[in-house]
């Protein structure tokens, strides 16, 4: 049940949140908000894959 929730959340993230890899964002130049979004997407993705 936990993984299905994170899989749903990953789909929502894919639709709503921007993809910084497609925009070729340099992590050294990223703002705090961009780093928070990247961290959130990473957290959700790793939990969806377990």
Order of helices and strands: HH
Helix/strand/pairing category? mainly alpha
CA radius of gyration is 12 Å
* Largest sheet composition: none
Describe this structure in words.
The protein is mostly helical and about 50 residues long. The protein is about 65% helix and about 0% strand. It is built from two helices and no strands. It has helices at about 1-15, 30-50. α1 runs antiparallel to α2. The radius of gyration is 12 Å and the shape is elongated. The mean pLDDT is about 90.
Features:
50 residues, 0% strand
Topology:
Elements (H helix, E strand, L loop, with lengths): L1 H15 L15 H18 L1
Helix pairs in contact: 1-2
Briefly, what is this?
The chain has two helices and no strands. By secondary structure, the protein is mainly α.
């Amino acid at each position: 049940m936990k993984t299905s929730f994170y899989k749903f959340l990953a789909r929502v993230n894919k639709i709503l949140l921007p993809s910084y890899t497609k925009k070729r964002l340099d992590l050294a130049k990223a703002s705090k908000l961009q780093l928070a979004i990247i961290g959130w997407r990473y957290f959700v993705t790793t939990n969806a894959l377990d």
